[in-house]
Amino acid sequence: MGEVSGEPGCCVWLTGRRGAGKTTVARAVAAQLRRRGAPVAVVDESEVREHLGGTDPLDGLLWVARLVMGAGAIAVVAVDQPRRASREELRVTVPGFVEVFVDAGPGPDVYEEPYAPELRVPTGDRSPEASAAQVVSWLEDQGLVVGEPDARAQTRPDGRIPPSR
Asked: pTM for the whole thing?
């Protein structure tokens, strides 16, 4: 069974233009990591807004991500964060920060592409599972997760593992 190598966990920060597929890729990354036995949680901006109400969404995302990482798990964060400078600040202040640019191509919004993300994942010409596999492969190459997929592990389309029977 796979495991996260090192403590605490890391923060895989998926960023990109609106509609790039960040949440879909985040759920696919989590599903693939779970099949390797790695502890992981998806931290989605829309869910944080819904459940933490009056909290600044970025503060809420960071709070949840730090809880997940503090437990030695991988936080996979899907967020609309258009300003490059705020992401660069996270790189300095969040231990284990991994910026993944989910690139769906040019768009009309105000999103500022990162200068040097750890990983660029194009989504326009391939499935979310293929994009997720690129992220998981990078994490393995960096020694942030180890293990082989468990063929017995079953996941639902939303990336969650169904309860045991």
From this structure: 0.82
Top CATH class, 3-145:
alpha beta
Residues of the chain with pLDDT under 50: 1-6, 151-165
| DSSP state, residue 135 | H
* pLDDT confidence of residue 7: 52
Q: How many CA atoms lie within 13 A of 12 on its CB side?
A: 32
- What gap in Å lies between CA 113 and CA 42, rounded to an integer? 22
Burial class of residue 63 (count of CB atoms within 10 Å of its CB; 0-12, 13-18, 19+): middle
Domain boundaries, given as residue ranges, for the chain: 3-145
DSSP letters for 4-48: E-SSS--EEEEE-STTS-HHHHHHHHHHHHHHTT--EEEEEHHHH
* Structure-token match 């998806």, residue found: 42
Continuous segment of H or E residues that includes residue 4: strand 3-4
**Per-residue model confidence (pLDDT) at position 59:** 81
Beta strands in 53-108 (DSSP E): 74-79, 97-103
For 88, 115, 123, the CA distances from 159, given in Å and listed in that order, are: 28, 30, 18
Q: ∠ CA(6), CA(136), CA(48), 5° rounding? A: 80
